[in-house]
Design a protein that fits this description.
The protein is an alpha+beta fold and 465 residues long. The chain folds into three domains: 175 residues, no CATH class; 95 residues, Helix Hairpins (Orthogonal Bundle), CATH 1.10.287; 141 residues, Histidine kinase-like ATPase, C-terminal domain (Heat Shock Protein 90), CATH 3.30.565. The protein has twelve helices and twelve strands. α2 runs antiparallel to α6 and α10 packs antiparallel against α12.
Length: 465
């Protein structure tokens, strides 16, 4: 099923071939079965008519009886006379099988004939005695001849007829001709193979025509996820494809407007909050109580920090930065060097030059947030850049106190802090991981946290486009 569902072309070709089987193989099989029945009926009718004619002929010339019967034999028929009634059907079949084996000379020596002899021997040896019972022959091909008895065997591939002649002797007629060939013959397979090839070619063309706009849509969606503006052409094509492209362009426009409106609203709120906060700070400066003044100023500072962080979070979610092809090793390496120069214990390891289309400032900020968290809680950070065929992994490892497993997802919530003192100096404002995950998801990736026995590993994973 995975092989079938992995490709639209495979699904379409498989369905077309199934339609071919249902539309041709089944009718062919039914018609072949009907053809076999018709051939057998025709052959048996011809055999009965010949036996009737021989019966009339030998009655008129009894002195030539044996010569006439011997001359009338064919590769599939034998005729002979006997002076006793063939009531023992099993003994009669053995006699017929022996006469059939004797052949007719050079014209009888061929591979099919030898196969028929072996098949008849096998049938004669395995016939059930209950199947060997003489029945009165009532065929129209027998005409008004004296009464005759017959036996059918091997699914009408064989027949035995006995009738008494005018002089009291018995005419014995034997027929055995297996129907050669079958449904899977060259004349039936070749047209089917040709039709299947034609359907496969048509299926590939149709699948490509269907998949082309879908691939274009997927590529455009990935580009939008990386912050690139994409406008799909709504030109020629089927109505359904044009409607899909129109809906995609409209969706992109609505998303862009929504993000821009939300960003402007948050920026306006942040700007408007600065004025009353500044007023509160000025008024707090004139308070006579030093202790109360310091507490109020600390609270105001925390509110200003949260306002600034909220604006940064909104900006990171707005995806305003353009996507560029960057050397991630150089990008992350320069960030680690900058932090190391500031006195932080940061080491960096990479697998060599690795380029990727990304928003460099946003990605740099996401990794910086993870490194600063590691330095804040563990005193050091080990950064490593790795890549697989499909993903790029930037891991930040530390040996700090870690995070309780049950709170791994909660730490990504805005303003959620494990540090309960709410002190911005020790625990920040609780937006670092939220901003990092938002930026990673804008690139089509994510931020994951793995808890170790001591410390944790934070990973930024993005698709390798």
């Amino acid at each position: 099923m995975r092989w079938f569902t992995a490709s639209l072309t495979r699904q379409l070709i498989s369905l077309l071939l199934m339609a071919l089987i249902l539309g041709q193989v089944i009718p062919f099989a039914l018609s072949w079965q009907e053809r076999k029945v018709a051939i057998r009926e025709t052959s048996l009718t011809e055999f009965i008519g010949r036996a009737a004619a021989l019966s009339r002929l030998v009655d008129k010339a009894p002195e030539l009886r044996d010569n006439i019967l011997a001359a009338s034999a064919t590769n599939s028929t034998r005729f002979w006379s006997s002076d006793h009634s063939p009531m023992d059907a099993a003994a009669w079949m053995k006699e017929a099988q022996k006469r059939y084996d004797m052949g007719l000379g050079a014209s009888d020596a061929n591979g099919d004939r030898e196969n028929d002899k072996r098949l008849l021997l096998h049938i004669a040896e395995n016939l059930d005695a209950s199947d060997l019972r003489w029945t009165v022959l009532t065929s129209e091909a027998w005409g008004k001849q004296p009464a005759a008895s017959y036996i059918e065997f091997a699914q009408k591939d064989g027949m035995a007829i006995v009738t008494q002649l005018a002089d009291g002797r018995w005419l014995n007629a034997f027929y055995f001709k297996p129907l050669k060939g079958g449904f899977w013959r060259r004349d039936s397979i070749l047209p089917m193979v040709a039709t299947a090839l034609a359907l496969c070619i048509i299926g590939v063309i149709l699948a490509r025509e269907i998949a082309r706009p879908l691939n274009e849509l997927a590529t455009s969606a990935e580009a939008i996820g990386r912050g690139e503006a994409v406008q799909l052409s709504e030109g020629a094509g089927p109505t359904e494809i044009r409607r899909l492209k129109q809906a995609f362009n409209s969706m992109q426009l609505r998303l862009t407007r929504y993000i821009e409106d939300r960003t402007r609203m948050l920026a306006a709120i942040g700007h408007d909050l600065r004025t009353p906060l500044t007023t509160l700070r000025l008024r707090a400066e004139f308070l006579p109580d030093d202790e109360a003044r310091e507490k109020i100023l600390v609270t105001i500072s925390e509110m200003e920090a949260m306002t600034a962080a909220t604006l940064d979070f909104a900006k990171s979610d707005a995806s305003g930065e353009a996507t560029r092809l960057m050397d991630l090793g150089a990008l992350v390496g320069s960030l680690c060097e900058d932090l190391a120069e500031l006195g932080h214990d940061v080491t960096f390891e990479d697998d060599g030059k690795l380029t990727c289309r990304c928003r460099p400032d946003g990605l740099k900020r996401a990794v910086r947030n993870l490194i600063e968290n590691a330095v804040r809680y563990a005193g050091h950070a080990r950064v490593r850049l790795q890549a697989s065929e499909t993903l790029i992994d930037i891991s930040v490892d530390d040996d700090g106190p870690g995070i309780p497993r049950e709170q791994i997802e909660q730490v990504f919530l805005p303003f959620y802090r494990l540090e309960s003192s709410r002190n911005a100096g020790t625990g920040g404002v609780g937006l670092g991981l939220s901003i990092a995950r938002t930026i990673a998801r804008q690139h089509g990736g994510d931020v994951l946290i793995e808890v170790k026995e001591r410390g944790l590993t934070a990973r930024v994973t993005i698709p390798r486009a």
